[in-house]
Amino acid sequence: MPFIMITSAITTVFEVPDGVDLSRVRQLGLSELGDDEDATDSVSIQHDKVMNEIYLGDAARKTVSISHSIVDPNE
């Protein structure tokens, strides 16, 4: 059976006060984002639902991965 990959990208930009230390935000924020299993499950379930509606329940998820990054959008 062939494979199909779904990629969902969500990008959120925040305005923060001058002097915010990006490396500190990364240190604190990435661990929190990585621990949010409910968000990962929510996206996975949505992908499953869409594919199983299209393939009448015959699509089986093989893997799922979520990655997070915190960057300066101006760099």
Structural class by SSE content:
mainly alpha
Query: What is the overall pLDDT average?
Result: 85
Order of helices and strands: HH
| Radius of gyration, whole Å | 17 Å
**Terminus-to-terminus distance:** 42 Å
Q: Report the uncertain regions.
A: none
Helix content: 40-55%
- Total helical elements: 2
Task: Give the strand content.
Answer: under 5%
Net shape: elongated
Query: What does the largest sheet look like?
Result: none
Counting DSSP E segments of at least 2 residues, the number of strands comes to 0
Architecture overview:
This protein is an all-alpha fold and 75 residues long. The chain has a domain at 26-54. The chain is built from 2 helices and no strands. It has helices spanning 22-34, 37-54. The longest helix is centred in the middle third of the chain and has 18 residues, at 37-54. It is elongated, with a radius of gyration of 17 Å.
Write the layout of secondary structure elements.
Elements: H1 22-34, H2 37-54
Name a few traits of the molecule:
75 residues; mainly alpha; 41% helix
Question: In brief, what are we looking at here?
Answer:
The protein has 75 residues and is mainly α. The chain is built from two helices and no strands.
